Amino acid sequence: MTEPHPSHEEPSLADFAFPDGDDPIVPPEGFSKWMQDNAWALSMMEPELQGPVGPRGSIRRGGKITEVINLSSYNYLGLVTHPEVVAAAREALETFGTGGCGSPLLSGMNRLHAELQEKLATWLGREDAMLFNSGFGGGMGTLAGLLRKGDVAVLDAKCHLCLLDGAKLSKARVAFFDHNDPDSLDAVLSSYDGKRRSVVMEGVYSMDGDTADLERLLPIGEKHDVRVLIDEAHSILVYGDQGRGIADAYRDRIALQYATFSKSFAHGGGYVAGPRETLRYMRFYTNGYGFSCTLPPVVVAGITKALEVATRDDSLRERLWENTNYFREQALGLGLNLGHSTSQVLPIIVGADRRGLFEMAAEMNDKGLFLAPVDYPSVPMDELRYRVAITAAHSRADLDEALSILEDVVVRRMKG
Description:
Blueprint: H1 31-37, H2 39-42, E1 48-49, E2 56-61, E3 64-70, H3 83-96, H4 111-124, E4 128-132, H5 135-146, E5 152-156, H6 161-169, E6 173-177, H7 182-191, E7 197-202, H8 214-223, E8 227-231, E9 256-260, E10 270-274, H9 276-285, H10 287-290, H11 297-311, H12 315-333, E11 345-351, H13 354-367, E12 369-370, E13 373-374, E14 384-389, H14 396-414
Parallel strand pairs: 3-12, 5-6, 5-7, 7-8, 8-9
Antiparallel strand pairs: 1-2, 2-3, 4-10, 9-10, 11-14, 13-14
Helix pairs in contact: 3-11, 4-11, 5-6, 5-9, 7-8, 12-14, 13-14
């Protein structure tokens, strides 16, 4: 590994976000040199799994293939290789072929899409649901399809980038309230009194692993007569009765529930569920829906079977929570900083040592543990971290071995 520059004053990806050159096709001045200087860290990025996502596997990273325990994938219920899910996808592939080859409004829908939308709406206790072919695109498209110039999107400060991009794309004004802070939300909504406003938050926040404080936040929205959209990317199929999400206990108080299929559903794409008339409007004004090809039928069939498997009983969720609680207890016992996580997403915060962040990632990889380093500006400079994703598929042996490597590498280095 090439010796890095340890100074916090060195450039970061944030410095190249707004280039000032004459040609937008040409990267900003200094970017190529920054890439070369940071090759020691970037070798940890874009790792290549050599097989299916699972608790263990082979990964090509930094130019070599290593057998690792995988604590970095969102296969929360272990459904990626579930035999029933794979069989359903295989049958759809043989029946419908590889793709939808058309937008849903014109030619791309088939009976599998319609059936999944109906099943999702019924399961969630909503009037309707609509599918997106991208998780990021669906979150972005939902806000872009609903909001307009002059509206105000009031986002929790830690909302995912897809929600921020959707609000910006709509040309609405974007305002942030402090994370999970009802007083801050009240102040922001009051400052835009008289405007069309929507409050946006997440079920589980993907970098910190904590949950939306709906008990305290929802009354603030209701006080101002403002509706709420919740993104349940990391909480659907994990929280709530039958895995219906954080919103399940507050179903009548949350207007729209969005989620991806890329985490617990173990596929790709996403959906939004809510009032029938709202979604009927969105189908015509959400460009990412109406002007984009449908999800491939093979994926839709797999998602439908994943929903069936995940909701027939609570066994997978129970196993996930047993694994999560065990890992959290043992990791805290080692002295690791897990922030404020209460979910199956657990940050391991290592501070501002960027050099250490990537060097420890490489060392853990060599010892058989796959953890992805999360660098600035994705998180604050003094809260660089790894993000652990616990799944129902992990065995106790997997978790114990991972904890042993964390103790040997991270704990030892943090203690100096």
